[in-house]
Write a sequence for this structure.
């Protein structure tokens, strides 16, 4: 059983990554193989709306999203984490969500388990969690609750003060493994 954690932050080793790693640790404790994918060092272009993927099942844009497709298909569970930028997910998260349209038509992600994580100083966490959960539901991925909210902000490591969010993230990873079994 494999759980994939995707960090959609443009900053490395920041609050969203910490919370996604915490969730992956919970999954690992429950017996899963885990993998962390950070997209801050990847080139993932936005969807151009050509709809070529409707017929072929593949996106014609050749970039690092090809790696993401493979990892999404291999995983039994997907944790998608994003900081909140202007009251929603980051451009990096939105690009992955939009480009996943290539997998949508045959519901190639159906019945996987999904976990949403959103980190913000104040407003927008609910919007971001809704965006991630809509991605899950559109692909017929089964979400675990509404997801995990973290109050991180711009300071790296600030999320470590949010003991409740860390605890909930770890519990979500464990629950993901239990549901897959």
């Amino acid at each position: 059983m494999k759980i994939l954690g995707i960090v959609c932050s443009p900053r490395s080793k920041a609050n969203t990554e910490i919370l996604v790693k915490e969730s992956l640790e919970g999954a690992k404790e429950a017996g899963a193989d885990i993998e962390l994918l950070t997209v801050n060092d990847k080139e993932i272009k936005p969807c151009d709306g050509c709809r070529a993927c409707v017929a072929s099942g593949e996106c014609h844009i050749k970039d690092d999203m090809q790696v993401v497709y493979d990892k999404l298909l291999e995983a039994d569970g997907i944790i998608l984490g994003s900081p909140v930028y202007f009251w929603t997910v980051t451009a990096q998260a939105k690009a992955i969500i939009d480009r996943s349209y290539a997998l949508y038509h045959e519901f190639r992600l159906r019945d996987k388990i999904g976990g949403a994580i959103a980190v913000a100083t104040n407003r927008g966490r609910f919007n971001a969690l809704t965006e991630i959960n809509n991605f899950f539901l559109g692909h017929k991925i089964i979400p675990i609750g509404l997801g995990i909210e973290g109050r991180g902000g711009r300071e790296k490591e600030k999320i470590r003060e949010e003991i409740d969010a860390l605890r909930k993230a770890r519990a979500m990873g464990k629950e993901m493994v239990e549901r897959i079994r």
